Amino acid sequence: MRGALKAAITQSWSTMLSSSTNRHTLLAFRSLNAELHGQRVLHTGNRLRVRWSFVGGSKIIFQPDVARINCHRKGSSLSACWLTSSQIATNAFTWGTIAVLPFYALMVVAPNAQLTRRTMESSIPYVILGCLYAYLLCLSWSPETLRLMFASKYWLPELHGIVRMFSNEMTVASAWIHLLAVDLFAARQVFHDGIKNKIETRHSVSLCLLFCPIGIVTHAITKLLMKVNGRSH
Predict the structure, then answer these.
(1) What predicted TM-score, i.e. pTM, was given to this entire model?
(2) Which residues contact 78 (CB under 8 A, 6 or more apart)?
(3) Is the Cβ–Cβ distance between 42 and 70 less than 8 Å?
(4) Are the C-beta atoms of residues 209 and 179 closer than 8 Å to each other?
(5) Burial class (CB within 10 angstroms; exposed 0-12, middle 13-18, buried 19+) of 105
(6) 50: β partners
C-alpha cells in the first residue's frame, strides 16, 4: 500500500514539474512591418510568458516589445517623420497664403511709404517661396509626373494628364505656392511701374492677388488712360 502511494506521489511530482517546465516556454508574437503615415515600424510584437507556482497557481506575464521607428524614403519623394503628406500640403497652402498678404497690404494701404518701397525692393519673399515650392515639388514628384505632364505623342501637355496630376494634394499645394510667387512678383512690377510713371496701382495690385492676368491688363488700361488724359490737358 505504501509503495503504491509513494509511486503515485512520485508520478504526480514528475507531472507537475514537467508542466511547470513547459509553461515557462516563451511565446513570441511578431507583427509584420507596417507603414504608418510615412514611417516604418520594424519588429514590433508582444511577449507572453506563462509561469506556474504552488502558491499562486499559473500566472501570465505580458511583456510588450519596444517599437523601433525609422524614417524612410519612399521612391523619389521625401517624407517627414512627424507630419503626413496631407498635413504638409495643408500647412504649406495656408501659411503660404498668409505670408504674401502683408506685402499686398503695404502696396494697397501705403504705396508711397518708404517702408513699402524698401520692402518691395527685397527679393527675400521670392527666395522663400521658391524654396518652399521646390520642397513641395520634391515631395509630390513621382515616376508618373513627367508622363502626365507630357502625355501627348508630341511631348506636349494634355488636359486629362494635368487633371490626373492635380488629383494629388501635394501637387495642388506646390502649384498654389507657384502661383503665389508669380502673382506677387507681377504685383511688384505693377507697383514699381506705377511709382515710376505716377499712376494709381491699388486696384491693379489688388487684382493681382487672385486674378493676376486681369490685374496686369487693368494696369495697362490705366496707364493708357492716364497718357490719353495727359495729352488732352
Answers:
(1) 0.63
(2) 138, 139
(3) yes
(4) no
(5) exposed
(6) 60
Structure-block grid coordinates of residue 8: 503515485
41 vs 3: CA distance, rounded Å:
60
58, burial (CB in 10 Å: exposed 0-12, middle 13-18, buried 19+): exposed
* CA distance linking residue 41 with residue 31, whole number of Å: 10
Radius of gyration of the chain (CA): 35
Backbone dihedral region of 133: left (phi > 0), alpha (psi from -120 to 50 degrees) or beta? alpha
- Which pLDDT does position 40 carry in this prediction? 38
Strands 45-53 and 77-78, bridge-based pairing = unpaired
The number of angstroms, rounded, from the C-alpha of 29 to the middle of its chain's C-alpha atoms is 34
∠ Cα 41 45 51 (to 5°): 165
Predicted confidence (pLDDT) per residue in 52-83, tens digit:
444 445 454 444 433 333 444 444 444 445 77
Give the DSSP letter of residue 65: P
* Helix (H), strand (E), coil (C) string for 131-184: HHHHHHHHHHCCCCHHHHHCCCCCCCCCHHHHHHHCCCHHHHHHHHHHHHHHHH
DSSP-derived secondary structure letter, 141: -
Distance CA(198)–CA(209), nearest Å, equals: 21
Q: From the centroid of its chain, how far is CA 183?
A: 23
